[in-house]
Design brief:
alpha/beta, QueA-like, Thrombin, subunit H, about 20% helix, globular
């Protein structure tokens, strides 16, 4: 399958700048694969497609305030540091992305916060924009992380940063209400639509709620640069899938209930835990799994996802699950009906 197949023209005005006033008031396009038909609903109507005993699997990762704004030593040039991954907690060693990268060299010191309360030294170049830095901080690791949280900002995707400044509500709305395990630098956006009221209604209906963890990295925004999709390599991301979740999902599946995954990150984590077709087992580690056609899904029956950008890994995965031609038609319909795309956009349910 070629990358160019997944290209389309996305009008800029359809990229959602802000979330809906209520999480579950986003629009929901429902795709019925068996009849190749489409319904137009609201996200809160999701409950109509789930029965008692069905299982919803969601990603409970929590977004870390990974954006730091500071200055370069001597020149005072403004710089942005995007924290990606902690390499060593004792030495405060981190992989980061810097901007503007051309000004940041090995040996430079970077200052952050009022009165330059935090200092980092650049010790290595990893990519054109990537650097390894060591933070100079006196105190425990817990105190260091607390200080980072106080100085850090919500790492919104670049498309939103270009449209507007980070608003106060982003701290809350660019986070699922069930986020628990801190470590992501990008939100699992399909889960942003769930409200406490909807989750309570699912509980009353005895729909099972199961959680796994995939810490979404900056690779979520990485462009695919090869035409042959078999040659694309995803960035590895940390995944934790418990044996309890696996047992509950397999038991529900055996009893004839449906398994609904919330978003592409949850799908990638669950598929990384597949041992043989139709079976999953506990998984703790890293995965760079890239799902593209042809691919056989043997665990998941339903998928919730947002409307994604052209040629993105998210759009390719949704197309793989829903059927490439059907999802392409659905996207054409979404553009015609002015659905909202991307991070704060509307949702799609593939049945």
């Amino acid at each position: 399958m070629k990358l160019s197949y997944f290209n389309f023209t996305l009008p800029k005005e359809l990229i959602a700048e802000k979330p809906p006033k209520q999480r579950d008031e986003a629009r929901l396009m429902v795709l019925h694969r068996d009849t190749q038909t489409i319904e137009h609903r609201l996200f809160k109507n999701l409950i109509d497609y789930l029965d008692t005993g069905d299982v919803v699997v969601a990603n409970n990762t929590k977004v870390f305030p990974a954006l730091l704004y500071g200055e370069k030593e001597k020149t005072g040039a403004r710089i942005t540091v995007f924290l990606q991954r902690e390499l060593n907690s004792e030495t405060r060693l981190w992989d980061v992305i810097v901007d503007p990268a051309r000004k940041i060299r090995i040996g430079n010191k970077l200052y952050f916060g009022p009165n330059e309360s935090l200092v980092a030294e650049v010790i290595d170049n990893t990519t054109s924009r990537g650097r390894t830095v060591r933070f100079l901080f006196d105190g425990t690791h817990a105190e260091f992380i607390k200080h980072i949280r106080a100085l850090g900002h919500t790492p919104l995707p670049e498309e939103l940063q270009r449209l507007r400044n980070i608003e106060n509500y982003d701290t809350e709305r660019y986070q699922t209400i069930y986020a628990k395990e801190e470590g992501a630098v990008a939100a699992p956006i399909a889960g942003l639509h769930f409200s406490r009221e909807l989750m309570k209604r699912l509980e009353i209906k005895d729909v099972q709620w199961q959680e796994l963890t995939l810490h979404c990295g900056i690779g979520n925004f990485k462009e695919i640069e090869v035409e042959d999709l078999s040659k694309h390599r995803m960035d590895a991301e940390e995944i934790h899938v418990s044996q309890e979740l696996c047992d509950n999902v397999l038991a529900a599946k055996a009893a004839g209930h449906k398994i609904c995954v919330v978003g592409t990150t949850t799908m990638r984590a669950l598929e990384s835990a597949v041992t043989i077709p139709g079976k999953i087992s506990a998984y703790d580690g890293w995965s760079n799994k890239f799902i593209f056609p042809p691919y056989e899904f043997t665990i998941e029956d339903m998928m919730i996802t947002n409307f994604h950008h052209p040629k993105s890994s998210h759009f390719i995965m949704a197309s793989t699950f829903g059927g490439c031609e059907f999802v392409k038609y659905a996207y054409e319909t979404a553009i015609k009906e002015k659905y909202r795309f991307s991070t704060y956009g509307d949702a799609m349910l593939i049945l």
